[in-house]
Amino acid sequence: MILDLFAGPGGWSRALGVLGVRDVGLEWDEWACKTRAAAGQLTIRADVAMYPTGPFIGRTSGLIASPPCQAWSMAGKRLGLVDQPLVHAAVEDLAAGRDTRERLLAACRDERSLLAAEPMRYLQALNTVGEPEWVAMEEVPDVLPLWKQYAAVLRGWGFSVWCGILNAADFGVPQTRRRAILLASRVRTAQPPTPTHSQVEEPESLFGPGRARWVSMAEALGWGATDRPVPTVCAGGGPGGGPEPFPSGSRKTLSDARERGTWVPQPDGVVLQSRREGAGWAAKHGTRENRAASAPAPTFTAEAHRWSWSLRSNNQANATVRPLSEPAGTLFFGHRANECTWVAEPVSALANDTDAPAVPEPIRITAREAGLLQTFPADYPWQGNKGQQFSQIGNAVPPQMAAHLLAPLLDKPFNPDDFTLAA
């Protein structure tokens, strides 16, 4: 079997499925397990730190591990960096067959820090019978020193090992997500996959096949400038939280004439109230209760004006903000489901126009949009409420990047076209 520790909602599993194989995932989060079940993935709901290694000994060909990154992530307090010496000590002890986790855990500032040492407990047990054949691990960049420690141990056990930092955008993911990667194999030379994309397109030449330009958010989401749909937005619902400002089905959409700057309400007959027009709006257009469903939708004050839309990756002061024509920054999702938002700015021609309407409020990204930016299918069966879905998406490995990492280890052919980013 292929054992997937901290399996999450199925990023690695989705990649393996495209490659024609399956894994068994260990995952504790209830909603991630439900997502995996809905996606048809084999799962054991268990605490990786408590589950025994015995059931896997003599049966495991590959081991995958993406320990939780919250203790190390720039989106959090990063107490994992403070605890790093303790994690290194745990890895050293576990590699020698000594379990000192309880003592070291008591000294950790963040109890999640020590989870990054858990893969070594499984690797040491499996190594007693010459398993696994290969290893793939992923974490935030600050964990690279720990991966180097793992690499030294694995080389001592006969593995070929590579570890380093890779950018998901270089492998067709519409997100500049940098991650520390470890790849190891007992039967093949471990090396990073060849990038398929670059920030600037590289034409084919005598020196190589060339690389395509990084995939933009607009491409991944199918939001073109001509006949494709573009972001779903609404008149309210800024980043401060709260309920949806309008019922399902009553949101406005930016039309494919975004370059002309018009807003075209969906033809669902629902009347929307514009916050910018105040109480006079209802007297002018009628209310939802007294307006006929067949009546034409009102004209909004933003018509004939143009907006430039970008994605703000989180609600921190130093958040990455990228236009639709570029990949997203790393998507962060914390305890609120709306930290990642679409933000609008007027084009330069309107920037100094005193008669221009107010800039639309930030619009929360949807789970479907966030999943597509992680290269999950548009119809991936995310389970749970919005916060639970966003938490799963933000923590997941982008399946397309995972497939690039796994294909050489499995000696499987991989065609990136097998991943459809927009559906």
From TrEMBL:
Q: Where is this region: Disordered?
A: 237-264
Which keywords fit this entry according to its UniProt record? Methyltransferase, Restriction system, S-adenosyl-L-methionine, Transferase
| Pfam name, any one | DNA_methylase
Which Gene Ontology BP terms does the record give?
DNA restriction-modification system; methylation; negative regulation of gene expression via chromosomal CpG island methylation
MF-aspect GO terms:
DNA (cytosine-5-)-methyltransferase activity; DNA binding
EC number(s) on record?
A: 2.1.1.37
* Active-site residue numbers: 69
Per the record's keyword annotation, is Methyltransferase included, yes or no?
Answer: yes
Q: Which family does it belong to?
A: Belongs to the class I-like SAM-binding methyltransferase superfamily. C5-methyltransferase family.
PANTHER family reported in the protein's UniProt record: CYTOSINE-SPECIFIC METHYLTRANSFERASE, DNA (CYTOSINE-5)-METHYLTRANSFERASE 1
This one is known as: DNA (cytosine-5-)-methyltransferase
